[in-house]
Structure formats: structure tokens, C-alpha cells
Amino acid sequence: MNGVAAVGGYLLFSSEAHRGALCALFLGVLFLAAAGSALNQVLERDLDRLMLRTMIRPLPRGDLTTRAATSYAGVALCAGVALLVVFCGSVSVLMGATALFWYLAVYTPLKRRSNCALVFGAVCGALTPVIGWCAAGGSPFDYRIMFLAGLLYLWQVPHFWLLQRRHADDYQRAGLPLVVMGVEGGVVSSLFWLWIVALVAGTMLLPAFGIIPPRASLWYAAFPLPLVLLFMLRSEKALFSYLNLFPLLVTLPLIEL
Question: Is this structure's pTM higher than 0.70?
């Protein structure tokens, strides 16, 4: 998903691209994400042993040593950086390094201490389309890519909050502080509703700001509406499933290879 978002960011800036460059971008971001995931599991191996959904991972299960996992992460990191340096430029590498640093040095330790970690950690995922945008020659401060990055930021908070609710027992077992938005009878709160409204409104405004191609205007005006319907139906499971697809629904229409 990170690779797709990066490619979407690239094509948002330039609809004409060499397939080799796009493949290098996709793989470079994919390798960086893999390195981040591996290092995160090294740092959280003590917590993973306590949670049912993570205790089957190779490190807590003892199938992989910490040294081996760190080595794999190092190889993936070097491969990702090399691809981005050669094919995408230094600014893309800087954006990727920033996202990786923020994930490992800010979000991962903060998750143990504060229930606000989710709000800060969402920055990492929001940077992935910026990597692609910069690879195509765009400025990271352009309002168009900042708008798209903001949408992905807005998406992550309700998405991961619902994930946390589904695995609340696991989080409590590991001693991780839970995000509390307020729950009434198992129904998500008004604060959650505000996040959803902001996400839907932001997506529907993409055509108005000229951020996406005119041919896709109807799509961006229509596909966010099920989020409102699912919220009104109070179907958390269906809402979570649809939110899982949101980054792909936003970025895939930008990709015409």
C-alpha cells in the first residue's frame, strides 16, 4: 500500500513517467517500509509476546533471532535507499528517511507512554505520496501534495482507532494506553464522526482544488459516501473494512500505466 501511494503521488505531479522509474520508486518505498516493519518488531518484541495477534510473529515465537531480523532490516534499508538515490533523487530519500525515523524514533516509543501516539504516528503514512511527488520533481510544500498527504493523515486516525478497539484486550494485556474517543453502547463517538466527516469532505474537495484529473472527478465525489452510510448504520466492522481500502481508492485512479 505504501508503494502504491508513492506511485500515486508521482503520477499526481506528472502523468508521463518511465515504467522503470515507477518500478524503482515502488520497490524503494516497499523496501523502506519492510525495513521499518522489521525494526519495529525488533523494538517491540517484548510487547509482541504478550499480544495474541502478534505472538505468532517470528521473533516472539523464537523462529528468528534479533540479530538476524536487524540484518534483514539493514539489507532492506540499503536496497530502498539505493533505489531512491539512483532513480528518484535526494529529496525523495530525505522524505523516506524522515518517515522511517518518525516511525521508529517517535511513534514506536511514544506508543508505550501515551494514548496520543496514534495522532503523531499518522504522520509517517501521510508522507508516502510525498516521496513519489518529490521523485517526479515536485516540491514537498506544494499545496496539492500537502492536501493529499493530509487526507491520508485523516484516514489513519479512525482506521487505527477501530483496529485498536478490535484488539483492545491485547493492548491492555501488553500495558499499552488506549485512545479514548468516547463510546456509547458500542457505537463510535461524535469525535470519531468529526474525523469521518473531515475525511469525506476532504476527498470530495480534491476535484474542486484541481488536484486530481477531471476524468476522475465523479469517482472522488462518490466513493467517500459509503463511509457516511456505514457510520450511520453503526457498522464498525464494515466501516473498518472500507477504511482499509481508502488509500487504494484514493491513489489507484491516479495510476494509468
Answer: yes
